[in-house]
Amino acid sequence: MRIKILYLLYDALLLLASPFVLLYYLLRLITVRSYREGFFERLGYIENKILRNNGIGRTLWFHAVSVGEVNALAPLVKEVKRSYPDHKILISTITPTGRATARKNIPFADLLIYLPVDLPWVVKRVVREVRPVFFGVVETEIWPNLVRALKEECIPIFMVNGRLSSSSFKRYKFFRFFFKKVIDCFSFFSMQTDTDAQRIISVGAYRENVYVTGNIKYHLNGHEFKTDQLSSLRDELGIEAPCKVIVAGSTHAGEEKILLDVFCRLKGKHPLLKLIIAPRHPERFAEVENIVAKSGLKFAKRSIDRGFKEESGVLILDTIGELGAIYSIGTVAFVGGSLVDTGGHNMIEPAFHRRPVLFGHFVSNFISVAESLEDGGGAIKVKDGEELFFKLDKLLSDGELIKKMGEAAYAVVKRNKGALKKNMELIDNFLKIS
Fold first, then answer.
1. pTM
2. Domains and CATH numbers, the chain
3. Residue 69 is among the residues annotated as catalytic for this protein
4. What is the pLDDT of residues 45-75, one digit of tens each?
5. Which residue is catalytic, options 69, 255, 256, 349?
6. Which residue among 121, 233, 259, 428 is buried most deeply as judged by most CB within 10 Å?
C-alpha cells in the first residue's frame, strides 16, 4: 500500500510539472528543428511495424540518454547483435543528438525511438507493444513508471555501465524510501567502479545483484584511424605538418572565452598554433560563433568551410559525431565541462588516440577516469585559465613530453579494457537461461 501511495505522489508531481514541461517542448519544437522529430514517440506512439509484427518476444531494448551513453553502448550492442543475430535491437534516447549518434554508430539497430515520457499510461502502452526480452539502461537513468511497467510484464531490467556521481548519490539516498522499491525491480547492476557499486547498494540494491565490470567507454576500437585516413583528415581540415592543434572538446558556456584568451596568448609564442572548438550542445553553435567573432580572431566553421580557411586560426566544429575523429589529429586535447561546474566529459577518446589530456577540476561525472589518467601520467588537471595557459605552453614547447604523455594516456586506456567482455558474460548468462 505504501509504495502505491508513493507512486501516486510521484505521478501527481509529474502532472503538476506537465504544463511547464509541455511549454518547454513547445518552445523547443518552434526553435529547434531536431526536436520536431519523434514528438509523438515521446507520447508513446511508435509508427513502425517491424517490431510489432516480427520482433515481439525477441526484442532487446537498450536505453541511452544522449551522445556519451550511446557511444558507451555501441561496442556492447555490436557484440550482442553478433551473438544473437535473430533478436531485434531497439535503442531509445532522449536527445536528438543522442539519436543522431545512435543512427551513425549503431547502424544495425532495428529501431530507434525517443524514450516515452514517464507517465504510467504512456509507458505501459509502449512496453506492451514492444514486449522486449529485457530492458538495459546505460549508466544511471531510472524512470520509476517505466521500471514499474516493465516489472509488471515480468521483463528483466539491467543497468549497464552504471555509475552514481556524488550529487546523484545524494539525491537517490535522500529519496531512498521511494527509490529502494524502484531499484528492487532491477535484475542486475553492472557498475563501473567499487565506489559506484557501494553507492547503488546504499540506495537499496541487493549486494548479490551488483557487479563491478569497469567502464565500457574504454572500448573505442571503432574510432581508430589508419595512417592514410589520418592524413586525409588533416588535409581536409587544412592542417599542414608544422602546425600544432589544440582540440577543445565538449565545451560549455563560460569555457570558450577562457580558451580563446589562452589561445591568443599562446599564439604569441607558437605562431603556427590552431584551435578547434567543439561545443557540447548543438543549440550553442550560433552562440559560440558569436563569441569567437567578438574575440576578433579569424575563424572557420566545419559545416560550411569544412576546414581552416586561409589565415584562420580557429575552427568551430559545428557538426555531430566527429569529435572522436578530430581528437586524433590534435596535438593536445582539452576536455570541456570541467572549468565550469557541469561534471566533465569523456577524456577516454583523446587518450585512446595517444593525445595528452587536460581538464578542469569539475570532473565528478568522470572522476575515476580522470584520476586514472592523471595518476598514469597521461593527463593534467588545471584549476583555471591561467594554469591552462602555462601547462599548454609547456607541452607545446616540448615534443618529447607530448609523445610521452600521449603514450601514457593510451596505456591507461589499454589497461582498463575488459568491461565489454564482463558485460557480455552477464547478458549471456541471462539469455541462456531465459
1. 0.89
2. 34-219+420-433 (3.40.50.11720), 225-415 (3.40.50.2000)
3. yes
4. 887 655 555 555 589 999 999 998 999 999 9
5. 69
6. 259
